[in-house]
Amino acid sequence: MQRYSFAALARRALGRHRGWTPLWRKAAPKPRYHVVIIGGGGHGLATAYYLAKEHGIRDVAVLEKGAIGLGNTGRNTTIIRSNYLWDESARIYEHSLKLWEGLSRELNFNLMLSQRGVLNLAHTLADVREGVRRVNANRLNGIDAEWLEPEAVKRFCPILSIDRAARYPVLGATLQRRGGVARHDAVAWGYARAADAQGVDIVENCEVTAIRTTGGRVGEIETSRGTIFADKLAICAAGHSSVLAAMAGVRLPLQSHPLQALVSEPVKPVLDCVVMSNTVHVYVSQSDKGELVMGAGIDAFNSYAQRGSFPIIEAQMAAALELFPLFSKLKMLRSWAGIVDVSPDASPIVGKLPIDGLYLNGGWGTGGFKATPGAGHLFAHTIAHDAPHPLAAPFALDRFTSGALVDEHGAAAVAH
Amino acid sequence: MLLIPCPWCGERDETEFRYGGEAHISRAPNPDAVDDAAWADYLYMRDNLKGVFAERWVHQAGCRRWFKLLRDTVSHRIIAVYKIGETPPPGSLPAGSHGGDP
Predict the structure, then answer these.
(1) Which of A49, A305, A312, B30 has the fewest CB atoms within 10 Å of its CB?
(2) Would you place residue A281 in the very low, low, confident or very high pLDDT band (cuts 50, 70, 90)?
(3) Is B64 on the interface with A (CB under 8 A)?
(4) Are B16 and B62 in contact (CB under 8 A)?
(5) Distance between alpha carbon A296 and the CA centroid of its chain, in Å?
């Protein structure tokens, strides 16, 4: 692997930038692997990287039906935070945030992590109570969290309207200063490069079409690039989790929905933090290019189409203008959708499935991007030891039978 | 944007409707008799099909009546509409769905 540094950059510049090598090999699938990971997004690539690095398992393939990072990894609004209410969620998301903080150095790849602070606004008395409770819960879990009164919110984010006469006035906000944004593509590329350097085969344009099980164990996988035998098979396919699990005869408590986002034309720096609101339901940040990046809630109906309906965007823009009246002159450049797999309790499923050698990391719904390093780290442990990592144990599939749900729906910020 | 054919009111804008999720999921006649796994299956497990999918909708801002659609979850094309208590039109039922019971 070519290491990136200022010296390397200077050297290549003198050579007119010839000699840069691709970030990863275009691997052709071998007939057999110890671990096959389905899904070449951030989660799948992180899983492969940690399998190789932490557990010494290098006989690994990542199968991606398209190209690396073009699914939800390239479609999210890049927000990172860990201010979840329940202990189980706080631990798993904080584990991830801690990994984010050292990741650019570890991967030798600039992930452009910007810990610019995430505000979660409160517009009603119920929001205020929920916010203060969540701040206290976060602090008990060792997560940085602050409660800001409206004037302090205005100081932190001056362009935000705190007009008391507004239909949804800002009554305060929670602030996680360590929250922020990262470059989403870079996460996939950085993990792909690092995993490839450890010997992982990254196989693009390779769609899984069938999973064969024998005697309650995974075996052969049919793909668009031939049959592959796997001792262990790990699903990291986000919106397509149900489709892949069904190939092995497993039903999941997941529903796939479009989640839309959009960006404005680029403007000069105007917003230097992330602002989220559940009640009016929008979340906004400004990218380094100057575009305002906005997301909101899912389309209610099931879909695999990577596009949603216009009323969602209309409601989202109305919410944005309520908070930021000065955005009213902005033009929106483009919108898109990713397919998210939403679980009944808005928490992920990370663990073993009822077939030997079959594992699932899914159900992250609308909030999977921030969890990329943590999910990969815990999932790799789960695969390597054939038993869940303690932090992932509460997120097993059997919680839907036992009733031990991790209900983050109404609890933490619903918007991810 | 979906244009949804309510069986009573005709085609209306998607915003008049609420979504009711996967259709043809029946509560056990005697809930006390089923085990935890069967109860979890009823409450939480879903086919979440890619392709033709049977689903429930309610015309919330119209006649406020429930009905069912067969809709393709990839193309969003609506294939059939039928009322509660009815079965999907012959030949239109998605492969692999539990469909049939009202």
Answers:
(1) B30
(2) confident
(3) no
(4) yes
(5) 15
State the pLDDT at residue A413: 46
Closest CA to A378 of A38, A60, A47, A41: A47
pLDDT in tens, A65-118: 999 999 999 999 999 999 999 999 999 999 999 999 999 999 999 999 999 999
Give me the count of residues in chain A.
416
A115-180+256-342 belongs to which homologous superfamily?
A: D-Amino Acid Oxidase, subunit A, domain 2 (3.30.9.10)
Note the pLDDT of residue A42: 98
Q: Enumerate residues 205 to 244 of chain A having a beta carbon within 8 A of any beta carbon in chain B.
A: 240, 242-243
Chains A and B: how many Cβ contacts under 8 Å?
73
Residue A124, token pair as written in the block: 């009603």
Tokens of B37: 């796994």
Rg of chain B, C-alpha, whole Å: 14
Pick the closest to residue A285 from A51, A36, A115, A55 (CA basis): A115
Name the residue of chain A whose CA is nearest to B42's CA.
Answer: A253
Q: B2 vs A309: CB contact, 8 Å cut-off?
A: yes
User: DSSP string spanning A261-326?
Assistant: EEEE---SS---SEEEETTTTEEEEE-TTSPEEEEEEE-SS---SS---HHHHHHHHHHHHHH-GG
Indicate where chain A has its CATH 3.50.50.60 domain(s).
25-78+185-253+345-402
Render pLDDT for A160-200 as a digit per residue (tens, 0 to 9): 999 988 888 999 999 999 999 999 999 999 999 999 999 99
- Closest CA relative to residue A188, chosen from A379, A23, A377: A23
Distance, CA of A44 to CA of A209 (rounded, Å): 18
Domain at A25-78+185-253+345-402, CATH homologous superfamily: FAD/NAD(P)-binding domain (3.50.50.60)
Q: Among candidates A66, A243, A333, A55, which has minimal Cα distance to B74?
A: A243
| Residue A216 pLDDT exceeds 50 | yes
Task: Tell me if A303 and B73 make a contact (CB, 8 A cut-off).
Answer: yes
Using CB atoms, pick whichever of A240, A252, A305 lies closest to residue B45. Answer: A252
Assessment of whether the complete model's pTM goes beyond 0.80: yes
The encoded tokens of residue A344 equal: 């009944």
How sure is the predictor about B100, in pLDDT bands with cuts at 50, 70 and 90?
Answer: very low
Nearest CA in chain B to A342: B48
Q: What is the dihedral sign for C-alpha A335, A341, A343, A346?
A: negative
Residues in A closer than 8 angstroms to B18, CB to CB, are 300
